[in-house]
Design goal:
This protein is α/β, with parallel strands linked by helices. The chain contains 10 helices and 7 strands. The protein has a single domain, classed as Phosphoenolpyruvate-binding domains (TIM Barrel).
Length: 226
């Protein structure tokens, strides 16, 4: 498909059954990294995401340094954190790759990220980005817009753009990455955020992309009748 990674949302879509593991298997079969977004406040969801094969986790609605630190602790094995150990999982090849080397690989290679999507966390963003073991932040312009009273998603609002810039600068200082979702025109918007220093680009959501393609096709065909 040309994509490097795919995000599976378990915040707004509820998947606590075998469907999540099936999606992780599908990603593994085509060699694409899968990121699972989960809600905050439940360390089990972070552990389960990694056990079923995610290459990255993203935790939503983080509002403070302490909450971001708790995410990292839940994602790492002792002594770096308190993730429960079992190699008998899809990620551990059902025990074939478990053991010390697998633990070290997980702590080093699996990516840990938090959503930067409200005024509270942006006010502490430099402290958050300094957390050891946190790999990236993902800026959520829609929820950030709501958190500052805009009452709708306003990515291009100067206040939102300033928060994105602050997040990117803090991340660069501590050699962390920042991501954001983009829409059409993809190349122009990607360039805008890459130039700001963001390093992770999400090309929309599949439902929005499908809707856009069919809308354009329908409008174009109807225009032929006129």
């Amino acid at each position: 498909s040309g994509l490097d990674w795919v995000r599976v949302c378990n915040e707004y879509s509820w998947r606590r059954d075998e469907s999540m593991e099936h999606m992780m298997r599908a990603a593994a079969l085509v060699g694409i990294t899968a990121m699972i977004r989960v809600e905050k406040g439940d360390p089990y969801l972070i552990s389960k995401a990694f056990q079923c094969g995610a290459g990255a986790i993203l935790v939503s609605d983080i509002a403070s340094y302490e909450e971001a630190l708790a995410v990292v602790k839940a994602a790492k094995f002792a002594p770096k954190g308190h993730r429960g150990y079992s190699g008998f999982s899809f990620a551990g090849h059902w025990g074939a790759d478990s053991g010390k080397d697998w633990i070290e690989w997980c702590d080093q290679e699996l990516m840990v990220g938090v959503m930067i999507e409200n005024e509270q966390v942006v006010s502490q963003v430099e402290k958050v980005m300094a957390i050891e073991g946190l790999d990236f932040g993902f800026f959520g312009p829609s929820d950030y817009s709501m958190s500052i009273g805009l009452r709708s998603s306003q990515k291009d609002n100067p206040k939102v753009q300033d928060a994105i810039k602050r997040t990117a600068e803090a991340a660069a200082k501590y050699h962390k990455a920042v991501g954001i979702g983009i829409g059409e025109p993809y190349e122009a918007e990607a360039k805008k955020y890459l130039d700001l220093g963001l390093r992770i680009i999400e090309v929309g959501h599949e439902l929005g992309i499908i809707r856009s393609v069919f809308k354009k096709a329908g409008e174009g065909i109807r225009a032929l009748r006129r």
